[in-house]
Structure formats: C-alpha cells, structure tokens
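Reviewer 2 asked us to include a model.

Predict the structure of this chain.
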Amino acid sequence: MPAYDDLMAFQRTTEALSQVAGRTGWDQETMMPKGASPQRAEEMAALEEVLHARRTDPRIGDWLNEAHAPDAAGDANMRDIRRSYERNLKVPAKLASELARVTSLAQGQWVAARGAENAKAFVPVLAEVVRLRQEEGAALAQGTERDAYDALMQDYEPGGNAADMAAMFDRMRPRLRTIRDRALAGKPAPKLTGNFPRAQQLALSEEVAAAFGYDMTRGRMDLAAHPFSSGSGLDVRITTRVDEADPFNCLFSTVHEVGHAAYEQGVDPGHLMTPIGRGVSMGVHESQSRSYENQMARSEAYCGWLYGRMRDVFGDIGVASERQFYRAVNSVGSGHIRTEADEVNYNLHIMLRFDLERAAILGDLAVEDLETAWNDRFLADFGFAVDKPSNGFMQDVHWSVGLMGYFPTYSLGNLFAGCLMAAARRDEPGIDEALSKGDPSPATGWMRKNLQVFGALRDPSETIRHATGDDPSAEPLLSYLEAKFGDLYP
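Predicted model (structure tokens):
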C-alpha cells in the first residue's frame, strides 16, 4: 500500500503543522503580549499559507486515486482527506492567508473595542471579516447546491445545512418558551452569597476537572476572556474565567471545556496525528461539553455533593440546603450573556445568532445594521433591552475570528447531548448514585467507550446513532428539560 502510506506520511506532517497553528492561536488568547498583535497576524497568515499549500498539493489527488485503505480507519482517513482536499482547492491561497491575517487582528480589536464598549471601532473590521467569509463561502459553494452559508457550515458540521437547522429551531422554540415562561412566573431561585477568592475557585475547578476525567499531564488550565478548549491528542488545553462574586462562572465554564478536552484526550491513540484523531464535528463536540456541564454537573445528584464541597472550600455560601443549592445552580432568569444562560434560555440565544449571521453572510443584513438588528431581535425574544455592546452583538468572540456557521452547532450539541445522556442512563443505571458521591466516571466512562474513543471515524449523525442505537432527535432534550424544570419550578 505505498500510495496510502505516502498519503498518510504527508498528512501527519500537515496535522502537526495544524496543531502548531492552533497552539499559536491559544497563545494569542492567553499569554501573548498585547502589543504583539500585528506581528502575530503576519505569523498566522504565514502558517496558513504553508498549510493551504500542503492541503492543495496535487500529489494528494494522485495518492487518493491510487491508494487502498487497509481498514475502516483508513477509509475514514481517506474520506476526510478527500473532503478537505476538494474544499481547499476551491479557496485561493491568497484568500486563505488574508483570512488568517485579518481574523488574527480582528480578535485583538474585538477585545479592545468590547472593553471600551465602542461598537463603532469594531464594525469596520467585522465588515472586512464578513466580506472575506462571504467570498470564501461563495468559492466553496461552487459546483454544489449549497449557498454560501451552508458551504461555510461544512467546516464545523459536515453534512449539516441551514434549512434543517431552521426547521429544528422551529420545532424547539415553542416548548422552550413554555418552559421558560413557567419558570419565570415561579418562585425565584436563591442566590449564593459569601466570599469566593480567585485562588480557591481555581483550585476547586482543577479538582472537579480531574474528577471529570481531564488529564493535566496532557493539558493545562489558563484564563481567557472567552473560555475555550484547544488542541488534540497529547496536548489539549482549556481556559476558564473568574468572577469573585460568582463562583459558578469559573466552575461550570471549566466543566464545559473539560467536556471538549475529554473528547480529544479520549480518542484512540492509534489515530494520533491523523484526520480522524480528533472530534468529528462541533455539534458532536458540543454534545460532550453540554452533557458534562448540564446533565452531569448541574444534576440534582451532583449538586448534592458539590454543595458540601463548596461549603468546605468557601464556608457559608448563603444557601441553606442541597435542594436550594440545586435551584441556585439551575436558576432560570433574564440575562444578556449566552455563556451564562440557563439551559432553557441558551438555545434561544443561539437561534438569534443563527438568523443574524446567516442573513449577514447571504447579504440580507449589512454589518453596519447588525447591532440594531441584534437589539431589536433580543428585545422581541427576551422581553428586555440590550444595555451595552458587550451585552449585545459584541459579547461573543466568534464573529471577530470568522466563525460564521459555527453557532447553530451549539444547539445541535444540546440535542445530541439529550440523546447521549438518555442512552447512558439506560445503559448505566448507577450514574446518579455515583454523581451524588462526586464521581462522574460511570457517565464519562460511557461517553469515552461509546463515542470519544472513535474520534472522527464516523460522520456526525452516524456517531450519535452508533453510540445510542437511535437516530438523533430533539425529543430526549426537550423531555429532559420539561421534567427537570417542571420539578424545579412546579
């Protein structure tokens, strides 16, 4: 199998360089000096130029035509290499390099403009990012039945399309609003009070991260304005953030990112530095982070253990019982920030972003009008006004770094999480008993065995189908939310 061996040897070098580029992005958001942004943008552009040249090397086409895969993993590797090769051939090298340069600069400009609440300073660079992504989407859509937005979505959710996402959202929205309105009409949940020093928050978060299966010998935890996970294989890093008035922000952001990291660390080591040696899609990735954060860490069983542990660490936290603590953790409220939203409101935040970014990429909404459109839609959907840009269209990093087509995968991940946890509880009846003792391993072990170890061996929907035995559906998620919040807000 010389053609297959040559193809995979070439691909491993490409994968290694891609990891270097990813780690450079991690550094930009965690360690890089503020004044280094212009140079880093040139570095990122240079790396992308090298990667694009490798991903479009004509030898790949020859090898793909000649190669015979030795097994199912080889078939999957060739599938992903072919998909990447055909997509990258459509994107001019100059455009790929310019996108890397502009989005690197835009990320720093977003941080500065967001901190200053200066929307006018951010709009011009965002308009440039959108223009470049429109150009890329149009190039990728050539020869297909997809529009530019659907074409961009393939980077995050292979096989996904906006029409299916919109239909899914239409089915989910009425039941989500019913759950939310009932909760908001009920008795408000209690709030924590007390002293929550940064050092203790981080120490507890590291303890919880380890319990959820994060291997710190192959990772590290740092601080970032917007928590994220980065890397795969033997180097998988997470970030979190600290608010000394709100320990839940740090704790649950950490568990969320551990879900992503555990997926990457859980892939079969035999797939290391190959196309299938990572998560298959952002929707499946999000299924891990959302199941870890919400259906495990925010469960009544785990909250019972966490209540005692937080009192050990912080002393009096102003909540009188395990049940009240559980209600505090799962409070349904009115807030601007997606990453701090409760499980019920979260998907409504995603629906807003999906509609706006799709309209922007398709040319139906000018970037100059994006803030107004956001504010109008937010008022209509949530019933109160946006008070400042950092609570509105500038709150997320995604658009500044060009991640158009990414947002709908968050809700798809919630849907997948509902399917996976229903199957895990079916197969492992002792999950809640273990969680009540601070031990998530029966649930996380099920995820590793049934999903994580396979990496990108199967396409996204087939990954969920193989793990659960059923087709993906929104019903398990909606039933879970109705039962949980019906109990919390009777």
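The beta strands are 221-223, 229-232, 235-240. The chain has a mean pLDDT of 96. We have added this to the supplementary material.
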